[in-house]
User: Fold this.
Amino acid sequence: MATTAKYRRVLLKLSGEALLGERTFGISPSYVRYLAEEIREVRSLDVEVAVVIGGGNWLRGAAVAEQGIEEATAHYMGMLAMVMNALALQSQLEAIGVPTRVQSALRIEEVAEPYIRRRAMHHLEKGIVVIFAAGTGNPFFTSDTAAALRAAEIDAKVILMGKNHVDGVYSADPKTDASARKFTELTYRDLLEKRLSVMDATAAALAEERGLPIIVFDLSAKGAMVRAAKGEAVGTLVSS
Assistant:
């Protein structure tokens, strides 16, 4: 097994649901602590770690808009949910000795730094974990797109896309379809043509344009995040 990391700088993409643990709503502090410990293990390989977290454990802007709230406003509500998740992860990381900064695309100076690319890169170079909160700061863009955008901006070498209890990309939902087939490797075009629900089309197109590999893996599998950072065969690799 590899003892050093393959990727010097990684962008870890977590869905908001990743913070649920065994809950159905909100945040599981114990599971967030587990995620923090996994991130600490990656960082111990001398890897620079940035994180983007969704907000789906609280609400989804698109779903809220369907209930009558103006759509752009609903998306901003979703961005605020992402900030809450970022603060929760920051708290658990710092509790185990990992220096962390939250940078928000929405200005909330009382709890987070504003997103400034050069400052983010300076933090990463000093070994500080940077959590990018509030998506892109614009409505109608997903946290997947935010992850691809921030990864391109900070020159990350890979996007590690953590999933809940799903160890890669399948032809169908393996939780409901026993015949679902797991892919070990895919191209960005495959994601679009096969309509695989890994990330939205905007995010996939940006990753393809930048030549950013994506590793989709199971967050709940202890050590999987470290193995992905080492370049070991884990989950599904999406590349050109």
